[in-house]
Amino acid sequence: MRLDCFVNVISIDPALEFYVNELGFFNIKYDFGMGNVLISHNENSDICLRLKEHNLQPSPDIVFALEVKNCKDQFEIFKSFKFKSGGQLSSNNLLEYPVESSFIIKDPSGNKILIFEPNY
After folding, report:
1. Torsion of CA 8, 107, 13, 48, to 10 degrees
2. Which three-class secondary structure state does DSSP give residue 115?
3. How far is the CA of 52 from the CAs of 30, 43, 73, 109, in angstroms?
4. Could you state, in chain order, the average pLDDT of each consecutive group of 10 residues for the chain (120 residues)?
5. DSSP E strands, the chain
6. CB of 33 within 8 A of CB of 98?
7. What's the rounded Cα separation, in Å, for the pair 84 and 73?
8. Euclidean distance between the first and final Cα of the chain, in Å?
9. How many CA atoms does the CB half-sphere of 15 hold within 13 Å?
10. Closest of 110, 118, 62 to residue 88, by C-alpha
């Protein structure tokens, strides 16, 4: 079974730069053409994002959440990273709760992604 999450982006090239090269969690699985690309998670190819060029405003809500093995290390990496794509770290601090550690990062289109590590 495969899980696809549909993510509207303003432009496909900066989105691919962000998700594939800068985040480094995804790779291109299939280019459907016309600004529609399927990318899959590096560790589980059945988890996919379907990036689609669209002129919609980004959602004010988190678009999806991505679990990582060491949230604190990831936060420190992205805190000093210079995003060429237009992506950006949205949190100034790592948020630490009893059930998880997390931070928010925005893709070049302004979509919010929660990066988290469960503590349960």
Report:
1. -60
2. strand
3. 12, 22, 30, 11
4. 95 97 96 95 96 89 95 95 95 93 97 95
5. 3-9, 26-33, 36-41, 47-53, 62-67, 88-89, 95-96, 100-106, 112-118
6. no
7. 21
8. 26
9. 24
10. 110
